[in-house]
């Protein structure tokens, strides 16, 4: 661990890591600021560019993006009442009222400092959790990995609030796509329908580019116009006041960071839940709850700290078990695959230098992105004055040239376009995209471990239920699938009680 | 999104899953076990999704069981858009892909950017041209010069798919 950290630190300082980190943070900020783009799109667009890089540099670039996006999203949330990414929605409640009171700079300062501290908190938690995770995964055999993959999928499907059936359908479709190509355990190819190109399966990176970048282009095309038309809305001053408030309100920062990191580590729960939970807990324990929603700076600090701490937490299941907790992490796994690493325990056991590079880059990116954004917040916010037609004109060629460049194949471009259409139709018809993407990652893991388990146990199905860890995971799957019904029952019970009262 | 559209979408997906299921039957027992299970479950969920539409007792019961999962919320995440607008958006993407396949990216990018910004977005042609040249130049620098990729030159100019 220490050697890996030293290697990564050397790569950061002497190996050009700072350069990639800075590029990543700037790109992350810009993509965070523009509503509708966000981290998955930024990562999907940049994956092809990392192909020629060494893995460590690619991790610095990815870490920069992941560190920059959350704060970028808060800029528009505070200045324009428009969250750049979904988790920034909680920042709107008090951030925008602060802007209306002429305290936009203070809100941005608070968001920046809270993001930086929250990001560092998440990274420290990740550093502490990784040695434990390395020990834990040694106890996992094929039955446990199978159950874990199913648990990851069910957790993601359940997390698609109010869309469990659609989430399960999307996961099913994703698994069906994952089984296309060579049979990992048996012999021959499956579901290729005579198309030689599909022998290696549906290519992951063009699929991600399609689902996130191309689908987003269609949404931008349809939305049209600029995000804001009034330059006066993006005025910023008195940033220092907000930064000082963060250090004064350190319990709020700590609470928000803890909630963000803990929630981030649970696959599928996501940053939006973490940010809203951090906000609501802060309101509930406050002595003056009536001031929230009217420009209380704690209402900006808590969700922003939570939002950045989440990244570190989300990397724990992603790196340790290969189970991405969010769309951003799913695309990040695509990056690992591109660099020859099979997501899951192997990364943690054999590529610790890569993991530490990512951790370092996340830590530095959180601070770097926040400092830089505070310096150029006003200029960055002006990005929202740009007509989205320019974005549509620019992003489509960048996305498709990137899809081509990976394997010098126009078929990859066609795959990206097909999945772009599928991605848009999923948005249009209310199917969550995340379960589909995660199922594509987990499909192979699930099937290989299922078949290996049966081979080892000589066809005995009880192997999945006779091992303690596997049984616990199975019970968690059942429990997770019951969550919506339980939640519904509790809601009805409460409503009944309220009516009685 | 109307109930009818939701049902139609589910029916299309059932058809796709059924074809997948039928294909899986041709493989050996080990190779088909998981794909068949997944296809079966997906078809089952799709039928449940269809049944959960509307306001009947079964539909309400299913929505309760799935925590309101199958309730139809008009438009979902996306706002209702005229189909013509959606078709146009997709047509631009398909047109760019076709152009790039035939003539290569270095011709397709300026043609697409200029025609999109000038004809569709109504920007002055000189701005559209400036964006087109800058973008093409930037992509050439990044991909060809810095990263060393050879970008597709188009089927007409001897490119290989």
UniProtKB/TrEMBL annotation, chain A:
The keyword 4Fe-4S does not apply. The keyword Transmembrane applies. Residues 19-438 form the DUF112 domain. It holds the Pfam family TctA. Keywords: Membrane, Transmembrane, Transmembrane helix. This is Tripartite tricarboxylate transporter permease. The chain crosses the membrane at residues 12-38, 58-80, 106-130, 136-157, 164-182, 202-222, 314-338, 358-377, 384-404, 410-427, 434-450, 470-490. It comes from the Bacteria. PANTHER family: TRICARBOXYLIC TRANSPORT PROTEIN.
From TrEMBL, chain B:
This is Tripartite tricarboxylate transporter TctB family protein. Keywords: Membrane, Transmembrane, Transmembrane helix. The chain crosses the membrane at residues 34-51, 89-119, 125-152. It comes from the Bacteria. It holds the Pfam family TctB. It comes from Chelativorans salis. InterPro entries: DUF1468. Residues 8-149 form the DUF1468 domain.
């Amino acid at each position: 661990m220490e050697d890996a950290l030293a290697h990564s630190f050397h790569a950061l300082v002497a190996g050009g890591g700072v350069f990639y980190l800075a590029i990543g943070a700037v790109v992350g900020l810009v993509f965070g600021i523009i509503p509708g783009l966000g981290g998955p799109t930024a990562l999907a667009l940049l994956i092809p560019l990392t192909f020629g890089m060494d893995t460590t540099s690619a991790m610095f670039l990815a870490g920069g993006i992941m560190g920059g996006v959350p704060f970028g999203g808060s800029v528009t949330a505070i200045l324009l009442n428009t969250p750049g990414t979904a988790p920034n929605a909680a920042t709107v409640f008090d951030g925008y009222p602060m802007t209306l009171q002429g305290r936009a700079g203070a809100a941005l300062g608070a968001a920046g400092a809270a993001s930086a501290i929250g990001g560092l908190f998440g990274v420290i938690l990740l550093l502490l959790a990784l040695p434990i995770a390395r020990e834990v995964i040694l106890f996992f055999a094929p039955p446990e990995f199978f159950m874990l993959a199913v648990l990851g999928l069910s957790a993601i499907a359940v997390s698609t609030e109010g869309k469990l059936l659609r989430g399960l359908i999307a996961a099913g479709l994703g698994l069906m796509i994952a089984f296309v190509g060579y049979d990992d355990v048996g012999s021959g190819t499956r579901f290729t329908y005579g198309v030689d190109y599909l022998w290696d399966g549906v290519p992951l990176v063009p699929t991600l580019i399609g689902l996130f970048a191309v689908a987003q282009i269609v949404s931008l095309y349809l939305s049209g116009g600029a995000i804001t038309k009034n330059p006066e809305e993006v005025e910023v001053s008195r940033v220092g006041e907000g930064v000082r408030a963060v250090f004064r309100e350190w319990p709020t920062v700590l609470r928000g960071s803890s909630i963000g990191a803990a929630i981030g580590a649970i696959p599928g729960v996501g940053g939006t839940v973490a940010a809203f939970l951090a906000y609501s807990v802060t309101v509930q324990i406050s002595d003056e709850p009536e001031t929230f929603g009217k420009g209380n700076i704690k209402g900006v600090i808590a969700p922003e700290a939570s939002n950045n701490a989440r990244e570190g937490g989300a990397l724990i299941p992603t790196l340790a078990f290969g189970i991405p907790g969010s769309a951003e992490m799913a695309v990040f796994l695509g990056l690992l695959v591109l660099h020859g690493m099979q997501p899951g325990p192997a990364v943690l056991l054999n590529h610790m230098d890569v993991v530490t590079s990512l951790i370092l880059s996340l830590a530095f990116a959180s601070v770097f992105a926040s400092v830089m954004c505070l310096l150029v917040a006003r200029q960055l916010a002006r990005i929202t004055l740009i007509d989205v037609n320019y974005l549509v004109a620019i992003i489509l060629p960048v996305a498709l040239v990137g899809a081509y460049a990976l394997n010098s194949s126009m078929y990859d471009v066609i795959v990206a376009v097909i999945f772009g259409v599928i991605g848009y139709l999923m948005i249009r018809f209310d199917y969550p995209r995340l379960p589909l993407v995660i199922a594509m990652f987990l499909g192979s893991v699930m099937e290989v471990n299922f078949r290996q388990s049966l081979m080892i146990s000589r066809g005995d199905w009880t192997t999945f239920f006779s091992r303690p860890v596997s049984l616990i995971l199975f019970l968690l799957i059942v429990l997770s699938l019951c969550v919506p019904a339980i939640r519904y029952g509790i809601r009805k019970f409460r409503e009944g009680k309220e009516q009685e009262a | 999104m109307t109930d009818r559209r939701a049902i139609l979408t589910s029916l299309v997906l059932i058809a796709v899953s059924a074809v997948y299921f039928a294909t899986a039957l041709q493989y050996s027992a080990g190779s088909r076990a998981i794909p068949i299970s997944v296809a079966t479950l997906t078809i089952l969920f799709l039928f449940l999704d269809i049944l959960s539409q509307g306001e009947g007792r079964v539909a309400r019961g299913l929505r309760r069981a799935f925590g309101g999962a199958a309730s139809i919320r008009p438009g979902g995440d996306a706002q209702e858009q005229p189909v013509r607008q959606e078709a146009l958006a997709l047509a631009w993407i398909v047109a760019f892909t076709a152009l790039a396949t035939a003539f290569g990216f270095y011709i397709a990018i300026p043609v697409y950017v200029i025609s999109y910004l000038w004809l569709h977005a109504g920007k002055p042609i000189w701005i559209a041209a400036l964006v087109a040249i800058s973008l093409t130049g930037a992509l050439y620098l990044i991909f060809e010069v810095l990263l060393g990729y050879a970008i597709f030159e188009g089927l007409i100019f001897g490119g290989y798919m």
